[in-house]
Amino acid sequence: MTLLSLSSVSAFYGPSQALHDVSLDLDEGQVLALMGRNGMGKTTTVKVICRMLRHRAGSVMFAGRDLGPLPPHRAARAGIGLVPEGRRCFGPLTVRENLIAAARPGAWDLRSVGDLFPRLAERPQQIAASLSGGEQQMLVIGRALMTNPRLLILDEATEGLAPVIRQEIWSAIARLKRDSGLAILVIDKSLAELAHVADRAVILDRGSTVWSGTFGALTPALTDRYLGV
Ligand code: ATP
Q1: pLDDT tens, 81-101?
Q2: Can you give the residue ranges of every domain in the chain?
Q3: Ligand 1 atom nearest to 85, measured from its CA
Q4: What is the pLDDT of residues 27-58, one digit of tens each?
Q5: Which residue puts its alpha carbon closest to atom 11 of ligand 1?
Q6: Pick from 108, 115, 188: which is nearest to 150 by CA?
Q7: Does the global pTM surpass 0.85?
Q8: Centre of ligand 1 from the C-alpha of residue 85, in Å
């Protein structure tokens, strides 16, 4: 069943149009890679889904509901968990406090997040600002899971992290896909890692959807043309 559906979405920053014609569909339990070079509209698409930016035309449907009129805090309540670009945890709070602050009822709780990220389970009382960059990113993912979303959005979640930590995060994403049935929208530069988890891909170019299909159908010609790899 389709969980998220964007149809011919356009969006602006003031007078400047950032999204022209973005369409994508994500089914329950699927992992969708949202791809494109820098500045092509990936984060803007995420902002529209999370209602941080209002679209001007087209439609955004989530779980059968039109998200158009919804303010941002309602998007979280509707079941969308966001791990935004750049690690943003509450620095002065402890690991535990960060997680509890976001909690909503459901299968994800301190124990299941701790199972997914043992590094967090080992240091519940540590002040978030004193965690390593990778641990902070795990905390932000854990916090998004604590909202018990139906859709998890990961915007460059492995960017700038040490290889060993990146690997832990990719393993966690694979485990989420395998065990949780969560739909995941992932933005990341690593094609090799995406290939392990993504079912489908959408490519954005200058604010428009230029390709969508199964991840396995991506050809070198496409990645060369639109991703510069
Ligand atoms: P990146 O990988 O660099 O984050 P992206 O694909 O996520 O790229 P967006 O951040 O969505 O791209 O940017 C799409 C376009 O919108 C770019 O031209 C960018 O300069 C512009 N843009 C992004 N944020 C703003 C803003 N707050 N105000 C004005 N223009 C913006």
Answers
A1: 999 988 777 888 999 999 999
A2: 2-226
A3: 4
A4: 999 999 999 999 999 999 999 999 999 999 99
A5: 41
A6: 108
A7: yes
A8: 12
Yes or no: say if 33 and 200 are a contact pair by the CB < 8 Å rule. Answer: yes
Compute the distance from residue 45 Cα to the ligand 1 centre, in Å.
Answer: 10
CA 198 – ligand 1 centroid, Å:
23
Residue 127 has what DSSP assignment? B
pLDDT tens-digit readout, 135-169: 999 999 999 999 999 999 999 999 989 999 999 99
Residue of 20, 22, 37, 42 best suited for mutating to test ligand 1, as the one with most atoms within 8 Å of CB: 42
CA dihedral 2, 214, 146, 60 (to 10 degrees): -40
- Which residues lie closer than 8 Å to 96 by C-beta, 6 or more apart? 110, 124, 125
**CATH code given to domain 2-226:** 3.40.50.300
